[in-house]
From TrEMBL:
Pfam families: DUF4154 (PF13689). It comes from Shewanella litoralis. This is YfiR family protein.
Length: 165
């Protein structure tokens, strides 16, 4: 029983570490991006995910952080137009991809949509995390970001793999 608990504990720790790294990436994506269509005055910057485990890790990692002088707030959301409309960044994990694929959503503007599954950009996302050599990397579609009224800094784009889909 002890080996099982140790293996499970290490697995959970690895997932938490990966989520912490991804939360840091999301923070930097937000810091170095501009939402070009102004919305009503915001009093917070909202990072959302339907995955509560990710939100728990992200809320710890991003506590007391700000994007454009706005405090970051993390929220667990359902994949519905109403819930997602409150987000500036939406992260779809591999555990929640089926919810994303089965949702009937209106076109999402002013929301940076990030995922971690193989065909995520083709499935409506703008940025996808992947692992390469044991490190978290990302690919991004600048055209999809632009169509959502978001511009990402060229400095960040150079760090990822640019894809056009």
């Amino acid at each position: 029983m002890l080996p099982f608990l140790l293996t499970t504990s290490q697995s959970v720790s690895a997932i938490e570490t990966e989520y912490a790294l991804k939360a840091g990436f999301l923070f930097n994506f937000a810091r170095y991006s501009e939402w070009t269509v102004t919305t009503p005055a915001l009093d917070k910057f909202v990072l959302c995910s339907p995955d509560n485990s990710f939100i728990e890790v992200a809320s710890t990692v991003l506590s007391n952080r700000k994007v454009n002088h706005l405090p970051i707030v993390t929220r667990t959301v359902s994949i519905t137009d109403t819930d997602i409309s409150q987000c500036q960044v939406l992260f779809i994990t591999s555990d929640t991809i089926n919810q994303w694929l089965n949702a009937s959503l209106v076109p999402l503007n002013n929301i940076m949509i990030v995922g971690e599954t193989e065909d995520f950009i083709a499935q409506g996302g703008q940025i996808r995390f992947f692992l390469s050599g044991g490190k978290v990397r990302f690919e991004v579609s600048p055209k999809k970001l632009t169509s959502a009224n978001i511009t990402m800094s060229s400095k960040v784009l150079r760090l990822g793999r640019v894809v056009e889909q």
